[in-house]
Amino acid sequence: MKKEVFVILLVAAVTRLLLLDARPVDFDESVHGWIALKSVLESQNYVYNPAYHGPFQYFVLASLFKVIGDSDFSLRLPAAIFSILGVLAAVSLRRWIGFAAYIFAFFILFSPSILYYSRYARNDIIVLSSFLLVLYFYLKYRDEGKIQHALLAATFLAVIFTSKENWIEYIPMFLVFIPLYSYYSKRSFRGLITKKNLAAIAPGTIIFTAIASFLYSSSFVYLLGSGDGAEQDALKNAFNALLSAEWVKHYSNVSMSYWLSNSLPFGGEKAHFHPIWYYLSIFLKYEFLALGMVFASLPYLRRKAKSLSFIEAFSVFWLITAVLFYHAMGYKTPWLVVHLVAPLSLFGSVFAGRELFDEEKEAFRLAFVFLSFITVLLSVHLSFVDYNDAAGEAIIYIQTQPEGVELATRIEELVQDGKKVLVYVPGNYYWPLPWMLRHENVPFTGDRCLPGFDYVFTSAKEECEKLDYHPLRNYEMRVGFHIWEMR
Q1: Rounded to an integer, what distance in angstroms lies between the CA atom of residue 372 and that of residue 364?
Q2: 4, 101, 336, 343: least buried by Cβ within 10 Å?
Q3: Distance separating alpha carbons of residues 54 and 67, to the nearest angstrom
Q4: What is the Cα–Cα distance from 69 to 472, expressed in whole angstroms?
Q5: Are residues 315 and 438 in the same domain?
Q6: Number of structural domains the chain divides into
């Protein structure tokens, strides 16, 4: 391994793994951890639900919990590791884009949104990093024709498909671009269907289908077994589930219909809906360098438009597809920004990034270095210092506040002291408390306040006062959302 690549990976490991469990686990992270622990590992009754995305993350988390235990660190470890792999894939593109690969790797390393969500238990970094690996292995296959590279690309396409529903942007975009580039470069589709390609497509399709079937059919949970000589039955149940078409029917019925109904920008009031310019405000505040590199690249793109290499043309196609896809969706959240920053960064690196190594471009280079320094400071500040500021930082969404940790500690102390404690929050918006208190016997409800407890922790203070509970203090669980301790 080259010295500079080792240094880059070392920086990636430090920025992803250092103090990984310092930030309080937030609402969504806790739900992901709970599903992996309770539905997959303990009760083994996991069924795919599109509201919580694909099974890949849950099965990886369940495996980690079984091996190293359930903790905030292990909860975030898969995202952190995949992020490191994404950095490795980015710097490995040097073979096709030269030193501009180091510029692209810098963006994957220190983009404020990418670094923040690389230390966060969501599927988005898994999807993005897997896609960068798909791109790398496909380019290797194009150059060397070795079937193992095509099979690795198919494997990571399957990871994308089983991780999150925005595969519908990544996978078709990538597969459509391949014949489009063939026509662009040769004015013909000839050469696409060859014996060599068929020899790669057939096993690649089998690998993709096997992984998708295995995970979406929940075959993994059967293999967990129950011990006591049940391994043979577990294997049989896993095999039966894998061969069943029920998972296809379930996926077809729930996945696309759910996300189409929740993502289309019309049809009534929906959660997480923002106007079309939502991402622009985030770009201007956090991702100004990537945005600036896109505009700086436009003159170079214009000059080279008729003779683009595969990766140059792909960077254009990915950027256009991603911008249209995520801006057209009414459902907009900060973590989706990573799927926009990456194509912006690749495009900027491939075109304007190469100019940074031109001795005559000193002013451009100085501007890039200055803005890079600001980006690093901002990124480190967000991920290691100001990570709780959901009110002031647009990239932070529903972060649990420090008082939420105090609240969990207080409940734990009361339970261990023998007190009867109820957590009642209408709508079941008490997360991440179930994850924080996963080892304690605490009842949670979203239905109504109940009598007969020594303490009730609730957001519905007035309702519980009617049952003669008296407020002691309130905790800010999330910005603007308080839970009262009542006795």
Answers
A1: 12
A2: 4
A3: 22
A4: 35
A5: no
A6: 2
Based on the fold, state whether residues 76 and 131 are members of the same structural domain: yes
CA dist 86 and 420 (Å) reads 47
Token pair belonging to 321: 């597809």
CA dihedral of 341, 344, 350, 354, whole degrees rounded to 10: -80
**155-190 CB burial, b ≥16 within 10 A, e <16:** bbbbbbbbbbbbbbbbbebbeebeeebbeeeeeeee
Name the strands in the sheet holding 421-424, side by side, starting at the edge strand that comes first in the sequence. 444-445, 421-424, 455-458, 481-486, 471-478
Residue in this structure with the two tokens 């690749």, named with its chain if needed: 346
- Tokens 């979406």 appear where? 216
Q: What are the CB-based long-range contacts (under 8 Å, 24+) for 243-250?
A: 244/217, 246/217, 247/48, 247/213, 247/216, 247/217, 247/218, 248/216, 250/47, 250/48, 250/216
Pair (302, 378) in one structural domain: yes
Bridge partners (DSSP) of residue 482 are 476
**Angle, alpha carbons 287-293-295 (nearest 5°):** 110
Give the pTM: 0.95
Residues 6+ apart with CB under 8 A from 318: 173, 177, 343, 346, 347
The single-letter DSSP state of residue 478 is E
Q: List CB contacts of 287: < 8 A, sequence separation 6 or more.
A: 111, 112, 113, 337, 341, 344
Instruction: For residue 232, give every residue at least 6 positions away whose Cβ sits within 8 Å of its Cβ, in sequence order, or none.
Output: none
Give the CA distances from residue 390 to residues 29, 142, 162, 401, in Å, rounded to whole numbers and listed in that order.
Answer: 15, 45, 30, 9
Q: How far from 204 is each of 142, 192, 211, 229, CA to CA, in Å?
A: 15, 15, 11, 35
Run of H or E including 483: strand 481-486
Contact between residue 16 and residue 125 where contact means Cβ atoms under 8 Å apart: no
Structural domain span for residue 416? 402-486
Burial 99-118 (b: 16+ CB within 10 A, else e): ebbbbbbbbbbbbbbbbbbb
111 and 81 within one domain = yes
CA distance linking residue 335 with residue 164, whole number of Å: 13
Q: Are residues 336 and 451 in the same domain?
A: no
Looking at the fold, whether 209 and 351 belong to one and the same domain comes out as: yes
- Over the chain (487 residues), the average pLDDT of each successive run of 10 is 90 98 96 97 92 95 96 98 98 96 98 98 97 98 95 98 95 96 83 82 95 92 65 73 80 80 64 87 97 95 91 98 93 95 98 87 93 98 95 93 97 97 96 97 96 97 97 96 97
Question: Which residue blocks in 94-194 are alpha helix, DSSP H?
Answer: 94-97, 100-110, 112-118, 124-144, 147-161, 167-186
The Cα–Cα gap between 23 and 73 comes to: 10
Residue 417 dihedral angles phi and psi, to the nearest 5°: -90, 5
Q: Are strands 471-478 and 444-445 parallel, antiparallel or unpaired?
A: unpaired
